[in-house]
Design brief:
By secondary structure, this protein is α/β, with parallel strands linked by helices. About 35% of the residues lie in helices and about 25% in strands. The protein is globular, with a radius of gyration of 18 Å. The model has no long low-confidence stretch (mean pLDDT about 95). One of its GO terms (molecular function) is ATP binding.
Length: about 240
């Protein structure tokens, strides 16, 4: 069983079955990418793991524990969304402190942890700024700091770089990878960009129309795609 494990997860919205039986595991400490075209159910799967959506049927496990019916707050999972992630009316400090304040951590501890985390993402000098005063890349680094300041074991990143321009994206990919390893967070990174998946992941799970088409290491996926869809999407097939 993976550190994160989905067992035959189905999710429907009305008559629209979006997840059609997902069984997949992510190894402890790995960065796994969920790769697939827009609309295939990637965000829905992350939201089911975070508890923001209820699964229709199936089970979700973290560290061997069935969390299918656990409330989002008690899942200890950090999440970064595509964009507009930050609270616009709160300063950088207040944004990063949010989760710690929810946990009622003592004020001096909140201050120490927020400062430490801003150092990790290289934004100490922005502590009193507001989101609108920051670039897109800086905002996503704050969102990352906010997601991991409470020390989650699992980190979910839903296309966090898709609104960032290509030049900056690469350095942010490297930075996210470094932080993920440093904090040893088992991470699922959602993307529709196969190049990003190749750079970012220990394991790739290729998603197609609510199902996992193929899972493997980047090299396996690139050199031995098992279906025409996988070959077409990963890009070694001409
Ligand atoms: P992806 O992240 O791969 O682009 P999503 O998981 O966002 O795909 O969406 C998959 C499908 O589920 C889409 O058809 C979308 O319209 C539908 N969907 C997602 N969330 C909801 C919702 N809250 N209510 C109804 N349909 C939804
Ligand atoms: Mg999505």
């Amino acid at each position: 069983m993976g550190y994160i494990q989905f067992e035959d997860v189905h999710k429907s919205f009305g008559n629209n079955e979006v997840l059609k039986g997902i069984t997949m595991g992510v190894e402890k400490g790995h960065m796994a990418t969920l790769l697939g075209p827009s609309g295939c159910g990637k965000s829905t799967l992350l939201r089911c793991l975070a508890g923001l959506e209820e699964v229709t049927t199936g089970k979700v496990y973290v560290d061997g524990k069935d969390i299918t019916d656990v409330t989002p707050r008690n899942r200890n999972i950090g999440m970064v969304f595509q964009q507009y992630s930050l609270f616009p009316n709160m300063s950088v400090y207040q944004n990063v402190a949010f989760g710690l304040n929810m946990q009622k951590s003592p004020k001096d501890e909140v201050e120490r942890k927020v400062k430490e985390m801003l150092k990790v993402v290289g934004l100490e000098e922005k502590i009193d700024q507001y989101p609108a005063q920051l670039s897109g890349g800086q905002q996503q680094r704050v969102a990352l700091a906010r997601a991991i300041v409470t020390g989650p074991k699992v980190l979910l990143l839903d296309e966090p770089l898709s609104a960032i321009d290509a030049k900056l994206r690469h350095s942010l990919q490297i930075e996210i990878r470094r932080i993920q390893k440093e904090f040893n967070m088992t991470t699922i990174f959602v993307t529709h960009d196969q190049d990003e998946a190749m750079v970012m992941s220990d394991e790739i799970h290729l998603f197609h129309d609510g199902r996992i088409e193929q899972s493997g290491t980047p090299t396996e996926m690139y050199t031995a795609p098992r279906t025409r869809f996988a070959a077409g999407f990963i890009g070694s097939y001409n």
